[in-house]
Amino acid sequence: MIMLIPIKIPNTLLFISSLLYISIGRSLGANPVYLYHSCPNTTTFAPNSIYQTNLNNLLSSLSSNATSEFHNTSAGEGSPSPVYGHFLCRGDVNTTACRDCVTFAVKDILKRCPVEKETVIWYDECQLRYSNRSFFGTVYTRPGVYLLNSGNITDQNRFNRLVNETTKAAAAEAAKGLAGDKKFATKDNNFNGFQRLYTLAQCTPDLNASGCSTCLTDAIGSLPICCSGKLGGRVLFPSCSVRYEVYPFYNQNSTTPLPPPTAQPTPAPPSFTSSSNGQGKISARTIIAIVVPIVVAILLVILGFCFITKRAKKYTLAKRVDDITTPESLQFDLATIEAATNKFSADYKLGEGGFGEVYKAWKLWKDGNPLKLLDPTLVQSYSENEVVRCINIGLLCVQEDPEDRPTMKTIVLMFNSYSITLGVPKQPAFYNRTDVDMPSMGLKLDDSTSVGFPVSINEASITELYPR
Fold first, then answer.
1. Per residue in 350-368, pLDDT tens?
2. In which residue ranges of the chain is CATH 3.30.430.20 found?
3. Are residues 101 and 88 in contact, defined by beta-carbon separation less than 8 angstroms?
4. Gnk2-homologous domain: which residues (predicted)?
């Protein structure tokens, strides 16, 4: 378990730090997000046995083929102890993330299941499975795992219907195609003015369309059992999985299959020095004399361009810093400022500083229009979902009650993983209440989830292993 150390930071610094993490957090390397694993001890193998040798060969083969989205193979076929295995990466992750997840999984699974013959492990980015029996092309829905967000959604009946409709649409899209085709699809749908529903469905490509559809139908049918009225949930089977959230947890710009393994390099072109009659020969010295000056010239041009661009940026930055200290730098007339602050209403006041009173647009968030906080000229240069998520995290950091604010450790997780569901922020500090207080919009998290089967806590979600 990761221990979260509560560190309280002033509101302004905390908000600015949160915004910075969106740009630098994803560049930091991290292990795959572990979800769950199953390895029943009904069948085990002895150390240094033939099965262990075959298993090591299988895992090595899976790791070396992690440049593709899916790969299944076997080791020791024909021997008394064959091993069959596969890996499956989530359909929207890139090649690097897929390779890193599989490479990590082949080591992690041996630590979690050191002597079990049948295992399956799930991460947010990939899945790894092996067994002493062939399971290729066959639908398996056991063991099954539920993962859910314990926060409740408003208007649960309408939300549940929307979840059912949207996940079924994603499942129908994912099940198309023949065995061997990629079976992955995402669908989203509008729920209310500032919330959308995002869904994902995926099968192992070795299933045919009928098998994939059967598996996903079973998974979708299990969602009401675990996740009715919840902000998010997923069902994981060995052969398929479904998931829904109220934020974009997948890469919307990467829904095409990952590229195949790198092809062998093409033969080198014929040498320029060959000639049937000795004429037209170009010596290596001549080629070097021609190519080197050209390369040097190109490098000098690139360096010069970079130097000029850097100086121009410094000049522009310095000019902007100087301009902001003068009254002439104000970009809005009095009418615009009065409209934005409701004629300098105290309800919009954030605090006071060197330039006087400072106002904010908390009302825009409550009204479901957070994007109006941005300059309209930026409308073509940002992702709507990223901006709303960033504003949401920022407002969580400046809530009036310090106990409601997330710690820096939690903020890092929020920016680095879409599997973290964001709560709805409460009113910020310095926000002046009117005589009639607005009802609390905070996200209520149950201390425990009341269901009829064992539950295990998984930091960002609750994992429930259900009997079948």
1. 555 544 555 565 677 777 7
2. 34-131, 145-245
3. no
4. 33-135, 141-249
